[in-house]
Amino acid sequence: KTKNSKPKEKKAVPPPAKKPKVDKPPLNKTQSDYESLDFSSNRTTSDGKLWNLKISSWNVGGLKAWVKKNGIDYLKYEDPDIFCLQETKCSESKLPPEVKVDGYHTYWLSGEKEGYAGVGLYSKKEPIKVTYGLGKKEFDTEGRVITVEYEKFYLVAAYVPNAGRGLVTLPKRMKWDPDLRNYVKELDSKKPVILCGDMNVSHQPNDLANPKTNTKNAGFTQEERDGMTALLEEGFVDSFRHLYPEKTGAYTFWTYMGNARSRNTGWRLDYFILSQKLIPNLCDSIIRSGVYGSDHCPITLLINI
Amino acid sequence: KTKNSKPKEKKAVPPPAKKPKVDKPPLNKTQSDYESLDFSSNRTTSDGKLWNLKISSWNVGGLKAWVKKNGIDYLKYEDPDIFCLQETKCSESKLPPEVKVDGYHTYWLSGEKEGYAGVGLYSKKEPIKVTYGLGKKEFDTEGRVITVEYEKFYLVAAYVPNAGRGLVTLPKRMKWDPDLRNYVKELDSKKPVILCGDMNVSHQPNDLANPKTNTKNAGFTQEERDGMTALLEEGFVDSFRHLYPEKTGAYTFWTYMGNARSRNTGWRLDYFILSQKLIPNLCDSIIRSGVYGSDHCPITLLINI
DNA sequence: CATCTGATG
DNA sequence: CATCAGATG
């Protein structure tokens, strides 16, 4: 106990070292780290053509945090022609300045509810037309779909509603699925369609690590799986599964809980889904599982079109 | 652009270093850091007696965060007979295990609203009686007052309601002030009282850095100042100001905004207020402005009783 | 600027 | 186990 001792002669203690402005962001690949990842592909179309268009997609799970974790470095290193983001959780007025990247046109659609959903799209080439939503009031205020039209195809970048804990929003999802299906079907009657993004469903048992225990959980209910099946039956193809029909352990999402990612206890929720007539153009559909910065990893499509 | 190059021979990149469980806590004095602070006092009572009782008080501004910032080390190093905490923001069931400290009885009072207010008290000696609240329904559900009775005095440890941004809760405060005043007055008729804690007012212009610009802000309105004046007029003494009537720059709170603490743009909001009859027992009333871990610093009373 | 909670995933 | 917003200070 500090009893009534004489005052010491010590000089005043200086204030502690100033804290960094931002709490040390979780470590992530920086630009130079990407150099150690293999981003090459030797795949071609079935008739041997090299890709000439690259599209990437990433559920960033909060754009502001993702930017602090050097997410933009991925964009620069991958250097896709088109880049789609889901779950930006960020209204346009709050976008950090780093999101402006030379050489890209950018398009943003945020939800009415602050910090919820939200999508974005980068495109090197200016699209012929950009449209927002599905044309359905219920979903168009939530920031879920950006469609860009190019000369030879439509790209629909989507963030599909999560069915929620306890499946509380499964009814909403059951309304969404046919709306999206009809939307892309309609587009497909005009030009080929590439649908990409977080589809929030693992279609088949080999699309997630624990199919048996997840049949009652959001992302692997029969209802959601049937929705995906119905979509594919309308003349669309899951590009990854088309190329790698037997591949296991190929996931794009791992919950942050319980070290799921390091144990690869994951789900394949992010897709490039193509109009059947684009299959001859498909070169590769790749999961960038070595890229960090979100609970999802990015995916990349290589195509000749 | 990563064109159709051959796959590299690099092996898979290992997952990034696991993030620490907790984001690096803001740096704070650890136990050993306290060794560089001067915690001694050579003050005695006016008739020369050394102190035999030490009481400390700290608005910790969130107990869970404060524990991570090594707040408990302060308690161990200061080693007071009684330690009072305000703004614990923590229900008893969520207390981190570290809060149990050998040699102390502990008492907690949390508010009904999760994460709001809440007070705690450590005592080496078991009190004769412990009571919670002021006996006024409106305030007793908020976690603001613990009273401990000892042989020779009452200690009232309080967290006074903040008048709020735009003074939205000034009316509530105006009800509180007389309630607290009457409460301690009543106790004082039985035994001497020590009232301590975050009084949420700077009484006089020399109790804050910017009196001129804060007369309409919570903590320095005329109403709040009058409340403190009325309390003192009932026979109580602001121990710090009694001992150091001319001292300037002596503050116990600095907003986290704009580096206020390093510029000492602060407020004296935390007090030991004594029944007048305890003044002959008073040795020292100290502001531990070198101790970090909250936007308030701790204060310590040395008394011979 | 920092603490909490609560919603959401 | 993360994100973000919103309340509170």
From TrEMBL, chains A, B:
Compartments where found: Nucleus
GO BP terms: base-excision repair
Gene Ontology terms for molecular function: DNA binding; DNA-(apurinic or apyrimidinic site) endonuclease activity; double-stranded DNA 3'-5' DNA exonuclease activity; metal ion binding; phosphoric diester hydrolase activity
Catalyzed chemical reaction(s): Exonucleolytic cleavage in the 3'- to 5'-direction to yield nucleoside 5'-phosphates
Span of domain Endonuclease/exonuclease/phosphatase: 57-296
CC cofactor: Mg(2+); Mn(2+)
Keyword Manganese appears in the UniProt entry: yes
Bias (Basic and acidic residues): 1-12
Principal location listed in the UniProt entry: nucleus
Sites annotated Interaction with DNA substrate: H296
EC number: 3.1.-.-
Extent of Polar residues compositional bias: 28-41
Active-site feature positions: Y159, D198 (proton donor/acceptor), H296 (proton acceptor)
Keywords from the UniProt entry: DNA damage, DNA repair, Hydrolase, Magnesium, Manganese, Metal-binding, Nucleus
Protein name according to UniProt: DNA-(apurinic or apyrimidinic site) endonuclease
Source organism of this protein record: Cryptotermes secundus
Part of the intact protein present: 136 to 440 of 440
